[in-house]
Amino acid sequence: DAGVTQSPTHLIKTRGQQVTLRCSPKSGHDTVSWYQQALGQGPQFIFQYYEEEERQRGNFPDRFSGHQFPNYSSELNVNALLLGDSALYLCASTGAPKNYGYTFGSGTRLTVV
Amino acid sequence: SQQGEEDPQALSIQEGENATMNCSYKTSINNLQWYRQNSGRGLVHLILIRSNEREKHSGRLRVTLDTSKKSSSLLITASRAADTASYFCATDNYGQNFVFGPGTRLSVLP
User: Fold this and answer.
1) Under DSSP, is residue A85 helix (H, G, I), strand (E, B) or coil?
2) A85: which strand partners?
3) Is B33–A4 a contact, with Cβ atoms under 8 angstroms apart?
């Protein structure tokens, strides 16, 4: 049974560019959350998607946007990249009941130069 | 702002010793979870303890929760080199997103 799959694993972008990261949740999971983890820090919540809608959002600017598809997969888009956007981006999925914890993907390492 | 704060930030022990990490949080929670992360990779869910539980065990892991003190501890017994990782607590604030602390970096020396 596949867990959470994220692509790509590594990415290098230039400042000002746009990037799209992808996530396929664990089979049976319908809720996807995205986290940003800077080096040496804990994951910071970006937003959560359920039933193709953004249900919750953390303290991130509008440059960060997302989407969830009918098959529950999700994308994270970041526009006008800044050097400070360099981080590990983690996707996590959960199903019902929601209090069983998240299953995380291995993340996408984004480097902005 | 982060809800959970792990303590200590870093911990170095010898193989076979026990490792204890603590987590403090600020608001009421539905449950608290501990995760492990190896070398900047994905997080692995270790254990979940609900707000009405006081202690939970899973293999070599023991988690306690004291809601009056808004704190939790993770004990890893008989540590192994493979336990070397960062450990994070995350709080579920009644349907809100899980909030992670900055983590404890555990080094288990052979």
Assistant:
1) helix
2) none
3) no
Q: Are the CB atoms for A43 and A35 separated by under 8 Å?
A: yes
Place of tokens 């911990």: B11
CA nearest B66: which of B90, B32, B35? Answer: B32
| Other CB atoms within 10 Å distance of the CB of residue B5 | 17
CA dist., res. A91 & res. B29, Å (int): 23
Angle value at C-alpha B105, between B87 and A43, nearest 5 degrees: 55
Euclidean distance between CA atoms A113 and B64, whole angstroms: 44
Model pLDDT for residues B3-52, shown as the tens digit of each residue: 668 889 999 999 999 999 999 998 888 889 999 999 878 899 999 999 99
CB contact under 8 A, A33 and B30: no
Dihedral sign from CA coordinates of B38, B88, B52, A27 = negative
Helix, strand, coil distribution of chain B in percent, nearest 5:
5, 55, 40
Partners of B105 in beta bridges: B10, B86
Q: Which amino acid is at B73?
A: S
Q: Which of A5, A32, A37, A56 to mutate to test the interface with B (most CBs of B within 10 A)?
A: A37
* B32 C-beta neighbours (distance < 10 Å), count: 27
Compare B91 and A24 and report the one with higher pLDDT. A24
CB contact under 8 A, A43 and B97: no
